[in-house]
Amino acid sequence: xxxxxxxxxxxxxxxxxxxxxxxxxxxxxxxxxEHVMGLTITSIYNAYGNKRALFEKALNYYxxxxxxxxxxxxxxxxxxxxxxxxxxxEVIHLHFNPSHPGGCLVILSILESEQHDEQSKNILSSAxxxxxxxxxxxxxxxxxNGEITLETDSQSIANHVTALITGMTTMARAGFSQKDLExxxxxxxxxxxxx
Length: 195
What we know:
CATH superfamily of one domain: Tetracycline Repressor, domain 2
CATH class of one domain: Mainly Alpha
Shape: elongated
Order of helices and strands: HHHHHHHHH
CATH architecture of one domain: Orthogonal Bundle
Number of strands: 0
């Protein structure tokens, strides 16, 4: 008869995600992972694999539970302008949420890309590309609905917004205020949509 696991795998994975998010892949030790996950190293290896495999599982957890909020805010907005504002505001919500380490795990991990193998790098770049592509889809839908002109360059705007997300994440980690970032969002969205 197979033994049932005596711990909450999702909860332990969430704790690993938060630690990788706070310290980065290379600075996170297995000893620290044992501590925050409340597991022995043997249990970690049995449930998740080695540190690299655990990081990739934690990264996927982040995509499914945290980064998805960017897409949800984009899709649920009532206008193209509010769609861009809301996806950019997620950077602020993410960074200034006291239950999060600040910044964005994807972007911070991309910045330490030399620490990652090809599979991790692919997950990271795919996440950023997915977000960019969903912005394009939203703007194309807005074109079809007549909310923005057919001449609007959806890809160019999506690239700018993706660059703003990565730049704002870095600015927030560097100590720029929430007000600074809110002002940047207001100015940028107006210029991007030519209003």
